[in-house]
Automatic annotation (TrEMBL):
Pathway terms, separated by semicolons: Amino-acid biosynthesis; L-proline biosynthesis; L-proline from L-glutamate 5-semialdehyde: step 1/1
PANTHER family referenced in this protein's UniProt entry, alphabetically: PYRROLINE-5-CARBOXYLATE REDUCTASE, PYRROLINE-5-CARBOXYLATE REDUCTASE 3
Catalytic activity: L-proline + NADP(+) = (S)-1-pyrroline-5-carboxylate + NADPH + 2 H(+); L-proline + NAD(+) = (S)-1-pyrroline-5-carboxylate + NADH + 2 H(+)
Record's protein name: Pyrroline-5-carboxylate reductase
Class in the EC hierarchy, top level: oxidoreductase
Pfam families, A to Z: F420_oxidored (PF03807), P5CR_dimer (PF14748)
UniProt function note: Catalyzes the reduction of 1-pyrroline-5-carboxylate (PCA) to L-proline.
Keyword Ligase: no
Residues binding NADPH, per UniProt: 57
Gene source species: Phorcysia thermohydrogeniphila
Sequence ranges assigned to domain Pyrroline-5-carboxylate reductase catalytic N-terminal in this UniProt record: 4-99
An individual GO BP term: L-proline biosynthetic process
Entry's localization field: Cytoplasm
Residues binding NADP(+), per UniProt: 8-13, 70-73
Length: 272
């Protein structure tokens, strides 16, 4: 299968996917079309990636077999209503909107349409993303395979029940922002101790990448933590400060709040 891919909304996530698809040489720029309400944004995408761009969303619908909806959840209902009459049941609609359920998409465009819901993260831009995947079971096996292959070029794809999407949105969708904050804070700590800013950021980044790689290699983080921690040493002094400041709780709470917001967004869009 070699389908034409469109994006409605050409913001951060659309660019992350376009960049990955083009750089990964899975799609030619001429197979990709994008629409947005901002002409400057479209000019930028056309110039940088060579994709086809339109101010009209319906043009993307006409030119695509797979249509990624990459607008904010609050804009989804308007966009879906706008394109509903032009969609064919053979086309595949892929939504990445946080908190926007498949049933709401079907309510607007019809339940005869092929609908995929994904929750990606910004790391797809460097082809190290994760994507949670579910669909409304209307895709043919080969179509599902194709969409997953497309997503696999830039991410690890997890088949998950839609019920888990709020939690996945918190951990995987919002997660990079939490990690960026941690990196920034570690760099600040280094600067406070006298390290030059650029050195502090590089050290913090390498520590994070290396630590994640060790966990990926198969060891549990708790076991690894104990290997770093000497009796009466430096690490336990730092860990004790983290416990005193309830760092674990703060991170758990961050995910809970992000998940709660995803549920709130669903309630909000269901009333639209
Ligand atoms: N940014 C992230 O890391 C992640 C975002 N998401 C989801 O991806 C979706 C897109 O998010 P971002 O790319 O971050 O947002 P963004 O704000 O960067 O991009 C949205 C784009 O939609 C355009 N737009 C607004 N109204 C439009 C309309 N009526 N027709 C066509 N285009 C229109 C905007 O001009 C903007 O360029 C959201 O639903 C979000 O929940 C999901 C996972 C991660
Ligand atoms: O902040 C947001 O709502 C979006 C969804 C996940 C990441 N960014």
């Amino acid at each position: 299968m070699n389908l034409r891919v469109g994006f409605i909304g050409g913001g951060n996530m659309a660019e992350a996917f376009i960049s990955a698809f083009v750089d990964g040489e899975l799609l030619l720029p001429s197979q990709i079309s994008v629409s947005d309400v901002l002409k400057e944004r479209l000019d930028y995408l056309k110039e940088k990636y060579g994709v086809k761009t339109y101010l009209c969303n319906l043009q993307v619908v006409t030119e695509s077999d797979v249509i990624f909806l990459a607008v904010k959840p609050q804009v989804m209902t308007t966009v879906l209503k706008e394109v509903a009459g032009s969609l064919y049941p053979s086309q595949i609609v892929v939504s990445m909107a946080a908190g926007y359920p498949i049933r709401k998409i079907e309510e607007i465009i019809g339940d005869d349409k092929k609908v995929v819901r994904i929750m990606p993260n910004i790391l797809v831009k460097i082809r190290k993303g994760v994507v949670a995947y579910c669909d409304n079971k209307r895709l043919l096996d080969e179509e599902r395979k194709y969409v997953k292959e497309l997503l696999s070029t830039c991410s690890e794809v997890f088949d998950l029940d839609e019920k888990l999407f709020d939690a996945v949105t918190a951990l995987a969708g919002s997660g990079p922002a939490f990690v960026f904050l941690i990196l920034e804070a570690l760099s600040d700590g280094g600067v406070k101790l006298g390290l030059p800013r650029d050195v502090a950021l590089k050290l913090a980044t390498q520590v994070l990448i290396g630590s994640a790689e060790m966990v990926r290699a198969g060891e549990h983080p708790e076991v690894l933590k104990d290997k770093v921690t000497s009796p009466a040493g430096t690490t336990i002094a730092g860990l004790s400060a983290l416990e005193e400041n309830r760092t674990r709780f703060a991170l758990i709470k961050a995910l809970e709040e992000a998940c709660k917001r995803s549920v709130e967004i669903t309630k909000l869009v269901e009333g639209m």
